[in-house]
Amino acid sequence: MLRRTFFATAAALSVMAGSVGIASAMDKKDIVDTAVEAGSFSTLVAAVQAAGLVDTLKGDGPFTVFAPTDDAFAALPEGTVETLLKPENKDQLVAILTYHVVPEKIMSGDIAGKKANVLSVQGDRIDVDATNGVMVDGAKVVTADIETSNGVIHVIDAVIMPNS
Question: What is the pTM of this model?
């Protein structure tokens, strides 16, 4: 009897643990909500909204987003952000933002010790060098592998610009 009770209890705990794991995965926020909640991406979030990309980045994905911090945007020449946020510059803003997005989920462990040239949603390729830390087109990844429900965010210390 004791043995049967032990196995029944172990089975119940296993089911409960599985439920918690499933709930945790379901509780993950998407890329946009994660960026909003972090609090250090208000400029990026405003730009994504101005570019009309919120629904895309809330979509199924998977996406890898190289997310510049507010400090990274502040380091741009004075007036750059304000100019990009104007409706008449939406195409340029979309090009810059989509250059920060890769249409697949790339974790840091996938490229550790390697160099890669990954295709962005914008269409240009991004140079990624993970041989000594991680650099993305000259920007340093300061926080990697922030998993979301539809991909991953890697925080970078500079805004990267497309070639075209």
Answer: 0.82
